[in-house]
Amino acid sequence: MFKRLKNPNKEMPFLDHLEELRWRIFWIILAVIIGSIVGFILVLQFGVLEILLAPLESVLGEGEKLKFFSPTEPFFLILKIGVLVGIIIVFPVITYQIWSFLAPALKRHEKRVIIPGLYMGMVLFMAGVAMSYLIALPVTLRFLLFFGEDYWDPILQAGPYLSFVTKLLVAFGVLFELPVVIMIFSVMGLVTPEFLRKKRRHAIVIITVLASFLSPGDVVTVTVMMMVPLVLLYEFSIFLSVLIYRRREEKDIGGGPPEGSVEAE
User: Among residues 151, 137, 110, 99, which one has the least CA distance to residue 217?
Assistant: First the structure.
């Protein structure tokens, strides 16, 4: 199905690249469809909605139900959540297809670093989601729902609430991928440890802006919750970059920062 040349030193023809890309996209789409069906079943049968509603119940008490204003809203909400769960389930398949397409263009030492980085990325993503669910989400709901409680009572609609929760969970998970991104850039020679150290202040400013932008409701507490781990992850990224360049020097690969790398003035 996928054409591979027997001689690895020869480049694959352009049309063969397109053919392989077409099949990779096909398998990704098929995996997402199957995962969405499985995710829809899981949402209905294994209490995914209860998990998403648990932070709200911890704030307002048990028995609190969300409201909806359209007959079709419950079905489409469960469908959307099912698709999201399905994508999470088949994400390793998606990653494998993308990796299989890009891997032939990478050097051996790049593969040795990027492959563990993909596993680390999955762990970091889950850590970000867990921190958001266990800490940031309850604090955010408590702040928003009881802000101005002397003047109005909350009526929570199902759609906006579930959208709010999923965006916050995904935002934390994506931002926790920072070390993986910097590690890949270091492997490719786009950044160096010296560059990362000298641009630390700029990075903190960017992290602050990102955290403020992604914090639902512009809650100061949630912004700080995002900033602190991101700053720590940035420092961890510098450590990973140092290890990569030190290992490169030990193996005498390139002798120093690769040509075209970003260096501080």
Answer: 137
